[in-house]
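Field reference: "sequence" (input) and "structure" (output). Example, MobA/VirD2-like nuclease domain-containing protein:
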Amino acid sequence: MIGRVVRGWRAHGLINYLFGPGRHHEHSDPHLIATWDGCPELHQPLPLPTPEGEPVWFDVGRLAAALTDPAVAAGIPQREPTPVAGAERQQGPVWHCSLRTAPGDRVLTDQEWAGIVADVLDRTGIAKRGDPGGCRWVAVRHAVDHVHVAAVLVRQDTLRRVSPYRDFLRVREVCLDAEREFGLRATTPADRTAPRRASRAETEKAARRGWPEAAARDRLRQVVRAAAAAAANEQAFLQLLAADDTIVVRTRRDVDGRLVGYAVADPRDTETADASPRERDRLVWFGGRALAADLSAVRLAERWAGAPDPDPAPVDRVLERREALDSAAAAAEDARRELPVGGAGAAHAVGDVLLVLATAVEDAAGGPLTVAAAEFEPAARHPGRGQPSAWSQASADLRHAAWRVARAGRFRPTNPSSGPALLALLLALASLVAELAAWRDQRGQLVAAAAARRAQESLQTAAAPLRARWPATTVPKVAAGPARTGPSATTSTSRLDRVRRAGSSVGGQPARPHGPVRS
């Protein structure tokens, strides 16, 4: 079960939508299943006279007025005030939570949904059980698989506003409990690392302005994540961002000149049309932390410190590309063997390897590697902070290998000098990703495990044409390059042979993690 929480201002507009036909006439039999006073039948809106064949609308005025009475009595506005330049944007008093079961789950009854809604309101503190002075709320059901909860965050007895603390996490806890109680499909507990989705307003702005790609927030996240994966230090990161003429960058430094923050913006993404004339041309900026947990300046500094910078590039570009691929394959094999210990670091570093490899092989045209990098992103995140605080040697080697691959430039899969090495790397990554999926599964991180399995399938798709062109018997034995550092700098030709042999069985069942899995 999944819960989503949003805040707004107009309760009447929300109730009208919940009892309306829906944007695509998907709402059927909208009705109240529970209310703040325990009498949903007294508040059920009546249908309005409607011509035959037209969608049915309901008279929601009386219900909306009853719901907002405490807010009106407290003098709280029902529409968002005009934004003030430099001031923090206010949150509206309307709290909206949608709860949805997964496809294939059994259909819950109205009484079962009502119990789940009561649990949500109790845990969030909006309307605790046995508290008649809590906020007014209603639960509306207009589909078999989900319900909506609308509440006005003003107490009935004191007329004071209520501010739910960490309401999303409380809703998540209720969903997990409901899954166990009603036998629903299990989902992963919230880890607070998922990137913030583009809001409906941001998505609609992109569509309204005719942008062919995703909303500005999502596109900026892709650009910054690609730059972070390819850059081995702060200077290279900022240079990569500055080289992209589709974004604008600004930085913030301390008195000693150290980078303490940065923000990016899409030059086309300005303030909304209803802003003041002075603000209308202002760009909408996103800090690194607002894009993803591991893209803040602090996390990037940790990432750069987690592995050494690549050595100066060899004069021979062909040799550089081959060494970069070989070192990455060897690092992937090391990470697979050390997975129970360094799984978190390996997962995050694999995300970087996939990103830079997709750019090096497919560029903007996209393909299975680009899909694999996008699909693996949820599996790369570390619960709580986005990335681990310490890296194993194998994880550091993977990160180092990603930087070398990014520096080596473009790769042609059909090139005899790099094609076999690229195949060996894809097979090694597919084997590692398969075990990472099992590793995530054993920790109950089901979303991350599913993402890793999808990425493994895409890697197999990318490797298929290379296997046909470069059969395993023709892959030459090439030792890894000399750039590996630290205790694991003992890469040998036999290790690459093991990589190729392990990868040859990727199409079957994934290998089991080595040794006991430790939390």
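Residues 315-503 form one domain.
The chain has three domains: 2-182, 212-304, 315-503.
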